[in-house]
Amino acid sequence: MSTTIAVMPPGRDALRYAERLSVAPMMDWTDRHCRYLHRLLSRETLLYTEMVTAPALVKGGARHLLRFDPVEQPVALQLGGSDPHELAQAAAMAAEDGYGEVNLNVGCPSDRVQSGCFGAVLMKDPPLVADCVSAMAEAAPSAEITVKCRIGVDDQVPAEVLPRFLETLRSAGVQRVIVHARMAWLQGLSPKENRDVPPLDYALVLRMKTAFPDLHLSINGGVGSLDEAEAFLAQGMDGVMIGRAAYHSPTEILQHADARIFGGAPGPEPEAVARAMIPYIDAHLAEGGRVHSVTRHMLGLFAGKPGARAWRRHLSTAASRPGAGAEIVTEALDLVAGAAQLAAE
């Protein structure tokens, strides 16, 4: 289950195609276990890692954070940082380890990110962002360098700031940008509030696609269904990124993504996905891991279906049993089957 340098990442055209629908990078959520689960549901959707900081890789020796299973492809790495030299080194590591895309975080509003002078605060310094992405591209020519940003921060005027920012990125060689259609308030709102409180301005992001037809632009923020994703694609957006909805209701979003967004076959049913996770869990445990590290990402697999509550409750409680292993998935599936039978009677 470890990364091998022999992994051949998808080409840029393939990544652009996959980015018609992507799952957002989410701290503490989109780790490698989560991505493995999501890939079982959708073969086409582009997956993103959690944000990994360049200092952790370059100074902290945390290269293990780049680890992924080759079956996760297409998968992109998101980096956080503001030092062009460090980001260049980190991007080079990512390219060596098989990532075909490295995304620079210019959107996270957390205090931890601000104290490191990266994330959304970088929108106040477009020339520095240009230096960062240029250095990354030079150090990792085999990987495409992309950016995820907000429409502005604090007292900036989005309609003025965002087009200038996109122009700066384009001049620095960036061709793909994901725009979270909210402002980020670096003072006065928590990271959680920044995901909900600032109003969404989808119209502005749609106008940016008209203003920058040569850029590959994806829209992010508050998208909760494939219906919404299809609507944005129909309005001309190149891609749609879904975050919390894809995590909490992965079957609803990802099982049908390949058919509705990519014109392929739908993914497997949640029971089949759950059973396919059992050997993965066994392998993780054999490496010394904990069952909870995997099963916590599976809680939403039956969201909206009979037995969903029993499924969540059993995985949550049984994972803490001494010696708990992959059998808790089978036990939870039995509860789901019983609930489905009762619902059918």
Structure description:
By secondary structure, the chain is of the alpha/beta class. The protein folds into 2 domains: about 10-260, Aldolase class I (TIM Barrel), CATH 3.20.20; about 270-345, Four Helix Bundle (Hemerythrin (Met), subunit A), CATH 1.20.120. About 45% of the residues lie in helices and about 15% in strands. It is built from 17 helices and 8 strands. The chain has an 8-stranded parallel barrel, surrounded by 7 helices. Helix 10 (about 225-235) links the parallel strand 7 (about 215-220) and strand 8 (about 240). The N and C termini lie far apart (about 45 Å).
Please bin the fraction of helical residues: 40-55%
Distance between the termini: 43 Å
Radius of gyration (CA) equals 20 Å
Q: Outline, from the CA principal axes?
A: globular
Name the CATH superfamily classification of the largest domain.
Aldolase class I
**Main pleated-sheet profile:** 8 strands, parallel, barrel
- How much of the sequence lies in strands comes to 5-15%
Helix/strand/pairing class, anyone? Answer: alpha/beta
